[in-house]
Amino acid sequence: MYRELDNLLSAETTEDSWYDDGCIIASDILSDFRADDWGKLKNAALTKPLEWQKKLAYCMDNNGSSHEFSILLSLLSIDNEELFEVCIDSLRSFVTPESKQMILNDPSILQRINDKLPKASAPVKKILEDFLEKIHS
After folding, report:
1. 3, 5, 59, 62: which has the fewest Cβ within 10 Å?
2. How confident is the model at residue 69 (pLDDT cuts 50, 70, 90)?
3. To the nearest 10°, the Cα dihedral for 121, 122, 128, 129?
4. At 105, which helix (H) or strand (E)?
């Protein structure tokens, strides 16, 4: 399954086709992942091209809970604002007490959000504020 996901994320697509079809297909593939697929994905995620990483972060929606959460947290270490925003957007669906605590225990995530808020566009600001609200609730 990992190879199938990798091929999909690596494919050249238009932005519309990715958001219309590709992300749904990727989410379906992720829902069929087994432990070895998650291991391969976790090992490869930080070495892939930025566009691949953004597509991956976008399609993670808490199907594989702890695996997806862990990968999204690792992607936050990449210095790219758009990837950071996509990861935060996806992380809004991870609202277990354990995931909230892990985020609260990492002050760098909250600091980046607070640094971004004043200069963020209206849609990004909404995502960041919603994320903070869910984490602190």
Report:
1. 3
2. very high
3. 140
4. none
With b for 16 or more beta-carbon neighbours within 10 A and e for fewer, the 25-39 pattern comes to ebbebbeebeeebbe
For the chain, list the domains and their CATH numbers: 2-136 (1.25.10.10)
For residue 13, is it left (φ>0), alpha (ψ between -120 and 50) or beta?
A: beta
pLDDT at 64: 53
11-15, 70-74, 113-117, 121-125: least confidently modelled range: 11-15
pTM of the model: 0.92
| Cβ proximity of 58 and 50 under 8 Å | no
End-to-end Cα separation, the chain, in angstroms: 36
